[in-house]
Design a protein that fits this description.
The complex is a heterodimer of chains A (296) and B (372). With 296 residues, chain A is mostly helical. Helices cover 70% and strands 0% of the residues of chain A. Chain A has a domain of 160 residues: MetI-like (MetI-like fold, Orthogonal Bundle), CATH 1.10.3720.10.
């Protein structure tokens, strides 16, 4: 009896035998990666050939010799055969300023308003909380006309201020910080009070360091959100010097009779991809940490 | 080092009176324990002393200076919290130094003070660690270090040991006692654990529903509980509380079912009146001859050094008896028992207070001197 039990035991802990069904999830994942990756690969291939090859419609699946040329042309805004465009260098600078301003601005404003809502008792506190909460239902697309009106009234059209300020207020980030702040034990606040830390010191010395991972995770998300803005920059900027890279690339596509320098556009697209990829790659560890655990 | 005085301190939440006029003064260097069941207001009282909770009425003074209007930081106190409340992102050193840093002490002095305190608490090897890298007992010690390093007029402890396991709790209890004795700082200590209270306190304030039931030295409270609540709360297993009637001759108490126990002094004037009789389980003793009471054993808990018998007295009232060693009593046995007249506690059944006549010589005085 006991011998047979012993015989059975190892079979249970041995690695599960290979089952054909196990392949299915992998197949789905691989398919997903291919679906996602192929267009990107085509962008890369497109950026390595000349405009003529692409225009003829028989783009090979292997890289051509012109990657560096195309990147250089896109970067400096020269060398296109037909359409003149703003140099990608300028567009990327604009995008970078906008994305950074939006990410930093959103975090700064949200963390301060969350601090007020989570830690202080003041009249109409819940009213303010709900006012912030309700703006979740009013994204840029919904309020775009009045927002434009206001920005135009302040004379901020075609400026960095006009590009970023209307996008800075963020209910999502405020709520995220509020939820985090609510998990901070009351005793920690009281210990700080007894240690003699006022509200500002507590915020700077205790709360801000504790929010590090949340801030980093939000930064990644908000940077990409800012970088990918399309509708608002399209509306609020008019001069080529203020184009962001997302707008600029679409502007490079010729209309009507004009032919399109697809190789330059693909090179510009490649360049436009780099900053968000870099941010995610560099801050991935923090992103996961910030979304998964809070160090307490 | 200072006194901590509370005068008629009250706390009201709307219509609810959580603290009803507490008067107590901790002497300089005294270890005062606030003891009571959860919800009795002991933590609220401590937090009011700390300044974390406002007071509705009365006065609080520390070192003769009235502080009830001051911010916590201006009260010259340090507090140790139940969950330690260490700053998770700071090292042990920074945790202890933070308060001093805010007060603007010179760097060299901060370093000296923290180092000295850390050595006293055997934390020196851990100064660079984060709280998350420490064990529960070490975190507790850091929390104490943070209080000690400030050299306050008073320590406030809010159930500091309740997050520790039983063994560590005993050990930390000793450490707190030793530390307090060494530093001689007036301490207020909140707990619901009577063992902690009995072992740590110079004096205990027993609280119930926002009222101070009794203030006194641990053994005084044990030997002469001022009310039925204190009698039932202090001591484990708890005191037997029995319904009794004063015998017609005024020289004994009748427990129903023919049970009778002798009083130390005559109470003839109140013959026939009901009283609540308290007898500690260890004072109920088996007797060879007819003792007047008999206990029918229902359950026996042998703990090795002692045995607790659960049973019913004449008249069916439940009672517990504690005796040394491992006597072989079985359920169903009937034991003649008695109690020394001086070990009886009499309470007024209407007010629940200890009867003043039990304060007469011949009642408890003898036993106090015997104990102390």
């Amino acid at each position: 009896m006991s011998a047979s039990l012993l015989d059975q035991a190892p079979a249970k802990v041995a690695p599960a035998r290979f089952r054909p069904l196990d392949l299915l999830p992998h197949a789905v994942l691989v398919l997903g990666v291919l679906l996602l990756g192929f267009p990107l690969y085509m962008v890369f291939i497109g950026a390595t050939w000349d405009a003529g090859t692409i225009a003829r419609g028989n783009l090979p699946l292997t890289p051509g010799p012109l990657l560096l040329d195309n990147l250089a042309h896109a970067w400096t805004g020269t060398g296109g055969e037909r359409v003149m465009h703003t140099p990608v260098r300028v567009m990327m600078w604009n995008s970078l300023v906008m994305a950074l301003a939006i990410a930093v601005g959103k975090i700064a404003i949200s963390i301060i308003s969350a601090y007020a809502i989570a830690f202080f008792r003041f009249p109409l506190r819940m009213v303010f909380f709900w006012m912030i909460f309700i703006t979740l239902m009013l994204p840029v697309e919904v309020r775009i006309v009045p927002t434009y009106e206001v920005v135009a009234g302040f004379g901020m059209v075609d400026s960095y201020a006009g590009l970023t300020i209307p996008l800075i207020a963020s209910a999502t980030a405020t709520l995220l910080f509020r939820q985090f702040f609510l998990t901070v034990p009351d005793e920690l606040v009281e210990a700080a009070k007894i240690d003699g830390a006022g509200p500002l010191r507590f915020f700077l010395d205790v709360l801000l360091p504790l929010s590090r991972t949340n801030i980093a995770a939000l930064f990644v998300i908000l940077f990409i959100y800012g970088w990918n803005q399309y509708l608002w920059p399209l509306l609020v900027t008019s001069s080529g010097d203020m184009d962001t890279v997302v707008i600029g690339v679409t502007k490079m596509i010729g209309t009507g009779e004009a032919a399109t320098d697809w190789n330059i556009i693909m090179a510009a697209t490649l360049l436009a991809l780099l900053p968000p990829v870099a941010v995610v790659a560099l801050m991935q560890r923090w992103l996961v940490k910030g979304l998964v655990d809070s160090e307490k | 080092m200072a006194t901590v005085e509370l005068r008629q301190v009250t706390k009201r939440y709307g219509a609810v009176e959580a603290i009803r006029g507490i008067d107590v003064a901790a002497r300089d260097g005294e270890f005062l324990v606030l003891l009571g069941p959860s919800g009795c207001g002991k933590s609220t009282l401590l937090r009011m002393v700390a300044g974390l909770e406002s007071i509705t009425g009365g006065e609080i003074a520390i070192g003769g200076r009235r502080v009830d209007g001051l911010e916590p930081k201006d009260r010259d106190i340090a507090m140790v919290f139940q969950n330690y409340a260490l700053y998770p992102h700071m090292s042990v050193f920074d945790n202890m130094a933070y308060g001093l840093k805010i007060r603007g002490l010179p760097k060299a002095e901060i370093r000296a003070r923290v180092t000295r305190t850390a050595e006293m608490l055997e934390l020196a090897p851990y100064l660079d660690r984060r709280p998350s890298q420490l064990s529960g007992g070490q975190r507790q010690r850091v929390a104490m270090g943070r209080a000690v390093v400030r050299e306050p007029a008073a320590f406030l402890f809010d159930e500091p040991l309740s997050n520790l396991d039983a063994k560590l709790r005993t050990q930390m209890r000793l450490e707190i006692k030793r530390l307090q004795a060494r530093l001689g700082v007036t301490s207020l200590y909140v707990t619901h654990d009577q063992v902690e209270a009995m072992t740590l306190a110079d004096r205990i304030l027993v609280m119930n529903q926002g009222v101070a039931e009794q203030i006194g030295a641990p053994l005084e409270i044990y030997s002469r509980p001022a009310s039925l609540f204190v009698a039932g709360f202090i001591g484990s297993p708890p005191m037997n509380i029995l319904d009794a009637r004063i015998a017609d001759d005024g020289r004994g108490l009748l427990l129903g079912g023919g049970g009778r126990i002798a009083l130390p002094g005559p109470l003839a004037a109140e013959a026939g009146q009901p009283v609540k009789l308290g007898i500690r389980p260890e004072h109920l003793k088996p007797t060879a001859g007819p003792g007047g009471l008999s206990l029918t054993v229902e359950l026996s808990e042998a703990l090795g050094a002692e045995t607790v018998l659960y049973g019913r007295l004449d008249g069916g009232q439940p009672a517990q008896l504690r005796m040394a060693g491992m006597p072989a009593h079985r359920p169903g046995d009937v034991l003649p028992v008695t109690a020394d007249p001086s070990d009886l506690h009499l309470f007024d059944p209407r007010t629940g207070r200890r009867r003043p006549d039990t304060e007469q010589p011949g009642w408890a005085e003898r036993r106090i001197s015997a104990v102390s």
